[in-house]
Design goal:
This protein has 96 residues and is mainly beta. It is 11% helix and 29% strand. It contains one helix and four strands; from the N terminus they run ββββα. The strands form two sheets. Strands 1-2 form a two-stranded antiparallel ribbon. Strands 3-4 form a two-stranded antiparallel ribbon. Strand 1 and strand 2 form a beta hairpin. It is elongated and about 60 Å long.
């Protein structure tokens, strides 16, 4: 059996956790320890912030953002309304 585990740390540093996989065919559990290290890399926006013009139902506005990746690592990113998970979590709970 092949299992894929993804690692998405929220902060830099060493991380560890345990992983248990249950196989129904032989009714057996396999346990292992997962270790990871998250580092800060030289990846960032050209400008710290972007300001958009006012928009209305029939009007659109756009800006170009440049992300500089000065490493050989593929970076994944997403736009978020809050700077940290700690700020975002209460809003998610409120909406649910």
């Amino acid at each position: 059996m092949q299992v894929t585990v993804e690692y998405h740390p929220m902060e830099t540093g060493h991380h560890s956790t345990s992983l248990a996989v249950h196989c129904d065919i032989v009714d057996e559990d396999t346990h292992t320890r997962l270790l990871g290290k998250a580092k800060d890399f030289n990846i960032g926006l050209e400008k710290y912030s972007l300001e958009f013009d006012k928009t209305y139902l029939t009007l659109s506005s756009q800006r170009t953002a440049v992300i500089h990746n000065r490493t050989n690592i593929t970076a994944r990113f997403q736009w978020k309304a809050f700077a940290t998970e700690a700020e975002e979590h209460p809003q998610k709970i409120r909406l649910v």
